[in-house]
Automatic annotation (TrEMBL):
Gene Ontology CC, one term: plasma membrane
Species for this entry: Pseudooceanicola sediminis
Coiled-coil regions listed: none
Name the UniProt record assigns to this protein: Branched-chain amino acid ABC transporter permease
Subcellular location, record wording: Cell membrane
Length: 307
């Protein structure tokens, strides 16, 4: 039982890292721009599809990864230039409707280009296999590499936000966008910078998860919902909050799906426990979100920004 718990804890950490990579850019978009972008998950999906295509063209996982990141970044900037910047001054309802429509358009576009059948990406040989952890427990090397890559990205993003001029502007914009604009900062360029980083991080998440999960047109929509939960729990505009909330959500979701039915078997019949466990497990992250908001309406590290 302990080995199973450790295994699911690592799986939850890996899932949380992916959630953080997607949520990091989106929480900055919320915090700085006050912009609701339902199409952010599309960048995660596009990153995975570009990874599948480019790794097949180059015949190399690493070649596909190196090309997929700038390609996703450029794709995000094109969307920002053609669509998003025209929505900054519109109401939240307009933003929701427009970006939801964009999700539908891009999902169909992916089906037209790559087809509706799931795609797969080969795992690099150097990261294949597994290593022993505790006794007979072994864990895939690639999943550990995903955790390490996500942690390295989090550290790099923390350094960028806290120790560079660009990061200073991002933090100032999250605190008081009007004041930053009044001081002569080019808000349009700042918005473009935020979208560039958000697109690259989301694309990176999609690219590195491609060898683990099947690449399909609905993958962006499924992760977007949990990404919003992460942002609400962590606090809008907070990278630190997004990181901690993503790990928390990833672990609660993964461990809850595994151990929920096991715990229910202690007080219920096995069949009923399994059915009830499958029903309750997806609700755990939302119950967690409700509990956090009850005690802290702005999230773990959120604060109300002046507009």
């Amino acid at each position: 039982m302990f080995n199973l718990f450790v295994l699911q804890l690592l799986n939850g950490a890996q899932f949380g890292i992916l959630l953080f990579l997607v949520a990091a850019g989106l929480t900055l978009v919320f915090g700085i721009m006050d912009f609701i972008n339902l199409a952010h998950g599309v960048l995660y999906m596009v990153g995975a599809y570009l990874m599948a295509m480019l790794s097949a063209l180059t015949g190399s996982f690493w070649g596909g990864l190196l090309l997929a990141l700038p390609a996703t970044l450029v794709f995000g900037l094109v969307l920002e230039f053609l669509v998003f910047r025209r929505l900054y001054d519109r109401s939240h309802l307009d933003q929701v409707l427009a970006t939801f429509g964009l999700v539908m358009i891009l999902s169909e576009g992916v089906k037209i280009i790559w087809g509706a059948a799931p795609l797969s990406v080969s795992m690099p040989d150097v990261l294949s296999g597994s290593i022993p952890l505790l006794g007979p427990l072994r864990y895939p090397v690639y999943r550990l590499a995903v955790i390490a890559a996500g942690l390295a990205s989090a550290v790099g993003l923390w350094a960028l936000i806290n120790h560079t001029r660009a990061g200073m502007l991002l933090r100032a914009g999250a605190s008081n966008r009007a004041m930053v604009s009044a001081l002569g900062v080019d808000i349009s360029r700042l918005f473009m910078l935020v979208f560039a980083f958000g697109a690259m991080l989301a694309g990176f998440a999609g690219a590195i998860v491609a060898p683990i999960l099947s690449v399909d047109p609905g993958m962006g929509e499924s992760i977007l919902i949990l990404t919003f939960v992460v942002i609400v729990i962590g606090g809008v505009g907070s990278i630190r909050g997004a990181f901690l909330a993503a790990l928390l959500v990833g672990v609660v979701d993964t461990v809850g799906r595994t151990f929920g039915p096991i715990l229910l078997r202690m007080v219920m019949e096995p069949a009923a426990a399994a059915q009830l466990g499958r029903t309750l497990a997806p609700m755990l992250v939302y119950l967690l979100m409700a509990a956090v908001l009850f005690y802290s309406p702005t999230g773990l590290f959120g604060r109300k920004a002046a507009r």
